[in-house]
Design goal:
Blueprint (H helix, E strand, L loop, with lengths): L1 E6 L2 E3 L5 E9 L4 E9 L6 E6 L5 E3 L7 E6 L4 E6 L8 E9 L6 E3 L3 E5 L2
Parallel strand pairs: 2-11
Antiparallel strand pairs: 1-3, 3-8, 4-5, 4-9, 5-6, 7-8, 9-10, 9-11
């Protein structure tokens, strides 16, 4: 089994920055493609940023140039640096990892709230 624990959310003013962290534990050898998704009230969960194959990354158009995904393999941790935040970025942010051996098995964290408001 795999556990993903997010941290770093909070309240920030428009134009501000936050850094989210997601640490994996358990059967970490079985996971790949860690990334971040978000879900705003009344909306579907959407991709924010993720690692794909190797060190390649994929970003939602709405966050390109503002958000950066990175990782520390030694700490089994993925980060999301969020700059120039605006109210439309308000959402619960979830960490996700994919099982590399079994198609269709994904792991999710519990989510961390990010609120952008003055």
């Amino acid at each position: 089994q795999v556990q993903l624990v997010e941290s770093g959310g909070g309240l920030v003013q428009p134009g501000g920055s936050l850094r989210l962290s997601c640490t994996a534990s358990g059967s970490i050898f079985s996971i790949t493609a860690m990334g971040w998704y978000r879900q705003a009230p009344g909306k579907q969960r959407e991709l924010v940023a993720t690692f794909t194959s190797g060190d390649k990354t994929n970003y939602a158009e709405s966050v390109k140039g503002r958000f950066t995904i990175s990782r520390d393999n030694a700490k089994n941790t993925v980060y999301l640096q969020m700059n120039s935040l605006n109210p439309e970025d308000t959402a619960v942010y979830f960490c996700k990892a994919r099982n590399k051996y079994v198609t269709g098995i994904n792991y999710w964290g519990q989510g961390t709230q990010v609120t952008v408001s003055s």
